Amino acid sequence: MSATVNSAPSTPTTPTLSAVSQPGCGGTTGSFTITNYNASYVYTISPSTGVSRSGSTITAPTGSYTVTATLGPVPRDHH
Would strands 66-71 and 52-54 be described as parallel, antiparallel, or unpaired? Predict the structure, then answer.
């Protein structure tokens, strides 16, 4: 019987944000894009009230936001 211990996954890169779209006249939401989006990461937008994300595009009410990327849950292989 043998066992293999794999190295830890790499740390996600810091999200780069661009394409900021300001609300139009009388509007209350804008949007921005995660330029280096990676579908295997879990993105957290703070504050999150009223925020929605579709892929790399984030739509949010007026305000300032912080976006962080983390690795998703590590799959467990049970034998």
Answer: unpaired
